[in-house]
Amino acid sequence: MSSFLCSLLLTFIFTSQISTATTDATGKFRYICDQGNDDGNYTTNSTYHTNLKTLLSTLTSNKDINYGFYNSSYGVNTDKVNAIGLCRGDVKPDDCQNCLQNSTALLTQLCQNRKEAIGWYDDEKCMLRSSHRLIFGINEMGPAMIAWNLQNATKEVEDEFDKGLKNLLYNLKNLAASGESDLKYAVGSDVIGPNNNQTIFALVQCTPDLSETLCDECLDKSIKEIPNCCDNRIGIGGRFLRPSCYLRYETNSLFYQQTQDSPSSSSSSPSPTPSPASVPSFSAPPPFAENTTSSPGKSNNSTTIGIALGVPIAIVVMVFIFICIYLRLRKPKKTCEEVQEEEEDDIIDITTEQLQLDFNTIRIATNDFSDSDKLGKGGFGAVYKGRLFNGQEVAVKRLSMNSGQGDSEFKNEVFLVAKLQHRNLVRLLGFCLEGRERLLVYEFVCNKSLDYFIFDQAKRAQLNWGKRYLIILGIARGILYLHQDSRFRVIHRDLKASNILLDEHMNPKIADFGMARLFGVDQTQENTNRIVGTYGYMAPEYVMHGQFSVKSDVFSFGILVLEIVSGAKNSSIRDGENTEYLSSFAWRNWREGTATNIIDSTLNNDSRNEILRCIHIGLLCVQENIVNRPTMASIVVMLNSDSVTLPMPFEDLKSLSDSSAKESVNGASNTEPFPR
């Protein structure tokens, strides 16, 4: 409870803070340096400084980006620099690049030696931001800057304006938040006034790396702050500049370029655009500062004291401080184990951030995603072989634009695999989330995937029983680690032959964690309305009722064992003139005492008893009754010891033919065989 209140307090202070922005000598560039971080300094000509210059000079080098959003990073560990460049949705690509290039020169000069910097250039046509922190996909409300029109408005105009403004902005907010991943932008207008003689023009935009929910939250915050700002001049115009979103509205001043493909909300046709001379000047400094007067000959810039806003905030802050202090004193001290877990979580977060690679690094490593370096193509995109700057060979999974794997699955895989380390799990070396690009960089596993061998009549002969047995044992150990031995209990939910990679020694490595789910330490089962995975490998309780648990992975493992032993896919196996599912075929032959019919004909008879024992274990795993299925810990013991007596499997599993008629379901991982 106290942690929640203290977190809320910090968020309240941070998001309510309106920072003072500085304007350069030209009046075109507004910028904020440092953003209040104590560790925000770097030394001139240091590695961080070099990385910053390199990153900003190449930020707009990707000519395939024509939607005005650039995000990249450069360097490693504490010298890693992250940057975001965003152009307003109505700015043309060439103008966008020029705007960001001009911002680069100004930001590095005006915020020299500061790791945290943000600037808006040329009437906010573009925003440039750099940081030593991870800033991608994070909704940051501050530092915020509010500017408002200095012209006075009549009370009548204010009332009419307020009525139409909120409806217009909330409609635009919904349009922008639900926009595509490369553009979260909307413009619109509405006619107001006693004689319908005034028009409100408005523009809202979020950085495209935000989810719909985060974009909505950022814009909603700005809309709700309108009544508390602008020195009671909300009826003329205002601007809200935040790192993650931008909002602007004007009266009788069309300040954006209208394009055919711009999302818009309009109650009526806009009035004629006034001449540039009628566009009013703005006060850039926010409340929380003393009034100042601009120098002669320049636009009138002033600041006001936000007493009406500041006093309630101060009272609320004081109340929360006292509550936090009180609860903190009452809270018992953490155990050593709890402290250690928190430290490990911090290390994990840092590790994940350090895995982020910039797009140019991956593009160079794969020879610009050359077809000659393409290893294959899966259901979610192509896989390329690459070589990093340090000479390490990697496999790069580049998700296709129309991939069924969304941002949630992508982030799920990144954060899960980054936290898991085991010899039988594929190792994630890096990732890239830049514009439309979603890339995963894995260790290169030279012998492709299990399905490449096991389902090919000629190639499966390369897998003698000794190799197949070690593959079965390695998969079992990898799943046991996920279920029990790692710090997290993980349910993979998509175990299948194409997701088992084989290294140079034919050791198996479990891959593709896009569908995986974390379980609590004491959690045994969870339900879902969205069934994901591959039919034939999915447990019946999951297919029919959406229930999954560690026993769901056990079922998938059982199917894998039967496939490895037989060399046949579970989707079909031919017995004379009849075709049936492998699981049904195995049960029938087990029942009739002809289990040897299940064994791949390319295997010799030297290990017949061990092979039959694996068939026995496989059938134990695919029992319909969850309770009867063994745990992975028991399975590993069974595989390691011939002296362990195996229980008899119950053939209560009705044929999966009804539920396995399709290959995949609901956007699940329907991966085609491909080498990696």
From TrEMBL:
Biased composition (Polar residues): 290-300
SMART domains, sorted: S_TKc
Annotated signal sequence range: 1-20
Keywords, alphabetical: ATP-binding, Glycoprotein, Kinase, Membrane, Nucleotide-binding, Phosphoprotein, Receptor, Repeat, Serine/threonine-protein kinase, Signal, Transferase, Transmembrane, Transmembrane helix
A GO molecular function held by the record: ATP binding
Segments forming domain Gnk2-homologous: 30-135, 141-254
Protein name (Swiss-Prot/TrEMBL): Cysteine-rich receptor-kinase-like protein
Compositional bias per record (Pro residues), positions renumbered to this chain: 271-288
Transmembrane segments: 305-327
Membrane protein topology class: Single-pass membrane protein
InterPro entries: GNK2, GNK2_sf, Kinase-like_dom_sf, Prot_kinase_dom, Protein_kinase_ATP_BS, Ser-Thr/Tyr_kinase_cat_dom, Ser/Thr_kinase_AS
Annotated stretches, region: Disordered: 258-300, 656-676
Swiss-Prot/TrEMBL GO biological process terms: immune response; response to abscisic acid; signal transduction
Location within or outside the cell: Membrane
Domain named Protein kinase: residues: 369-651
Origin superkingdom: Eukaryota
Pfam families (UniProt xref): PK_Tyr_Ser-Thr, Stress-antifung
Residues annotated to bind ATP: K397
Any one of the GO CC terms: plasma membrane
Primary localisation category: membrane
